[in-house]
Amino acid sequence: MALYREQGIVLRTYKLGETDRIVNLLTQGRGKVRAVAKGVRRPGSKFGGRLEPFSHVDLQLYEGRNLDMISQAELITPFDGVRDDFALSACGSAMVEGADRVAQEDERSNALVLLLLDGLRALSGHPQHPSSVLDAYLLRLASVAGYHPYLEACASCGDPGPHTVFHLAAGGVLCGACAPAGSHGLDPQVIALMGRLARGDLRRISTVDDEPRVRRAAGTLVNSFLTYHLGKPLRAWDLVPR
Ligand SMILES: [Zn+2]
After folding, report:
1. So what's the pLDDT on residue 93?
2. How many angstroms is it from 133 CA to the middle of ligand 1?
């Protein structure tokens, strides 16, 4: 059996048998990896506590016929502050679920790993509105998945904005000439907030000056955009306090 080393983020875990766990990981070199951690649910297991969702870990694994086997796990960052807080953990769960949806097996996924680490780091800074950090993360996730949202220039003809008609199938905003007849424009503040969420450092996202209704409307639009392009809604999204 070939032995390999990978750094990755624990996406989720499942019980297996009496004492084992299946761990789904997002790794840089091999994309999504499903691996067995033997004996980790026994009291006193040497690395059971290191394989919790959100943990960034350094692993040694054996290649198996079906599932790989984890033989060593060292914590790089536990992100336990995210796991232990209801709102942060709801946002973190939606982040890992989104990454899980976009990632492939046996495919390098540097951009996705870096994005997820950025998202979890931003949450661990206890932002005032964690749901806005999630929305900003999800807009970037859409870009990584190949559905970059057009939020300024018209998605169809490139006419510089601002535009207020948002069209899911077109991939963003449309100008008056390209928008289908009878389209309703959105509140310009919502589109402007989406533009701000899509830019810059996730750790500096601040929506303290935005009205709650504008924040919520932007969140709903981000969710619709992702659901449209990824095929189905993220289950964890409904648990996020807004
Ligand atoms: Zn246009």
Report:
1. 98
2. 29
Q: What is the pLDDT of residue 53?
A: 96
pLDDT given at position 106: 85
For the chain, helix, strand, coil in percent to 5 are 40, 20, 40
Taking ligand 1, which is a single-atom ion, which protein residues have CB atoms under 5 Å away? 154, 156-157, 159, 175, 178
Buried b (16+ CB within 10 A) or exposed e, 165-181: bbbeebbbbbbeebbee
Distance 138 CA to ligand 1 centre (A): 25
Going from the Cα of 173 to the center of ligand 1, the distance in angstroms, rounded, reads 8
Q: Evaluate if residue 1 carries a pLDDT over 80.
A: no
Q: How far is the CA of 224 from the centre of ligand 1 (A)?
A: 21
| Phi then psi dihedrals of residue 8, to 5 deg | -160, 175
Mean pLDDT within 131-152: 96
| Residue tagged 């701000």 (tokens) | 196
Which whole number is the average pLDDT over 108-120?
95
